[in-house]
Amino acid sequence: MTQRNLYLSNTPVDEALEKYMEAFGKIATVRYETIKTEHSLGRVTRHATYAKYSSPMYNASAMDGVAVVSEATSTARETNPLTLKKGKDYVIVDTGDPVRHPFDSVIMAEDIVETGEDMIKIFASAAPWENVRPVGEDIVAGEMILPSNHEIRPIDIGVLLSAGITELEVVKRPQVAIFPTGTEIIEPGVVPKEGDIIESNSRMFEAMVAQGGGEGFRFPPIIDDYELIKNAISEAADNYDMVIVNAGSSAGTEDYTVHVLRELGEVIIHGVAVKPGKPVILSIVKGKPVIGLPGYPVSAYIAFENFVRPVLTLLSRREEGAENEVTATVSRRIVSSLKHREYVRVKVGSVDGRMIASPLARGAGAAMSLVRADGFCIIDLNCEGVEAGEKVKVQLYRPKEEIENTVVIIGSHDMLLDIIGDMMPNLHRNMFVSSTHVGSLGGLMALKRGECHIAPTHLLNEDTGVYNISYIKEIFDEPMVLIKGVHRIQGIMVKPGNPLNIKTVSDIPGKRFVNRQRGAGTRVLFDYKLKCEGISPQDINGYDREAATHMAVAALVAGDSADCGMGVYSAAKAMGLDFIEVGPEEYDFAMRARHLELPGIKAFLEILQSDDFKDALTKLGGYAFANTGEIIKL
Fold this sequence. Notes:
Molybdopterin biosynthesis moeA protein, domain 3, Molybdenum Cofactor Biosythetic Enzyme, Chain A, six-stranded mixed beta sheet, elongated
């Protein structure tokens, strides 16, 4: 066969890719496999992954020193040191050792003086839970560790293993057959003669396929023979996820590739308006993408980047992007030591054209903050920190394009935010959700400062009995909306079997309690219930002991670090706790009215109103959906 090819088109690159992806996207098949967690670097999760165990699994000493009962040290002063006896008043602990009841605080070794065998002196009182890492400080059993469609990083592997996840289901790497063609092609290492060309493109493609999340299988060069090329492509389409044919895609008399592909399948595009790289063939054979790339190395490289990589991204479910640096406004004051250069982990989002950096947990053991972070804000040596509202440089390790397509949520915590975050990129490609938990009031103030798109809130007006609306009207002087969320059950979480027979808030005094942080709607509700019962916060043992999420409260109760705590039913159920209902509440979403037209907000509302979202929450338990998704203009 010695006919000359004619280009079917001179299609612009974007248009060519759009047509090809539209044709292939309808039949594309993503395959999955289960692998060991330690072998999962760079792989993409199929499902959201939830922790089996908390980390730490027990109250752990954060320092080398001695564990004491904090209340027994209250009289210790510099001028009036207190003598303690080993075994009776303290036990020696090293970093990571369990701190067991009745001990609830650790004094650092450097702050004690040994006065004799088994005797020490201390010169200051110890605060409750000082230098103690509580159960679930880093990871809480039952919380989502990684969402679906997440590309696993080294820090993710460490956290997964810490949470008891030893294997997981991931996207199977697309297997790509690579065929160099041409009678003039010889293998590297063969001494060339006149007219020979050393074949190197296919090895470049192998590396680029691996970089793109696939596995390249390079075959020996095929001479310019129609039947040989046809048989090789046909067999490869049966056994591989994708086929690359290099050379033979142009208009020469021995360029057979396009004719072969027309016979075996459908050629969507032949020829694109790019220089170099025009002779590209985009086809589908037996439901598999088969792409013909030009022979010149630069043309081949450009064509691979424009057409092979997007298809590979679709099949591997990866998101492409590179690390970069951005200037962002820091949402909260960051205090730093003059002695160190500090790398503060931050969540980053784009709100009204401004990059906003929200600091995350800074403890050396808080590995999950690395998983949640989008990058680092670096505080240099001899700097005391930065104030809220200041501009900072952030080194991103999440693609900037993802951050710009992220709905930023700051406010009250609920497990439904994880579910929305997991559903968003599945239902709306290249759209994401980022949530930071600072409590209802903290979220509304962040929204006021323009640091987020949405503030989840559940603040009760004690005078009217109406949730959220009065607070929004008082804080904002511009058009706002309240998106109705869910009705959820708040109550008291206690150990299985309720061994202390706690029935109401009035039974909490005398028990070990763990509270939510100031500004949290759950804390506002608890304060209201205390007021109704005529109970002073000073009568609550642990009123000032704060946890940032409902799951963290549940973990502390389940780990016998507290007898009870306020939270939502879904968190109690997730940790296997008993639950004493206090009452229903309304968990809603505040936002600026002008943000309703943003694509990410529309996607958020679509998920909120969907049956799949409601089904997922129903499985967690403790939710009702009377007016979920209703928009109230304020």
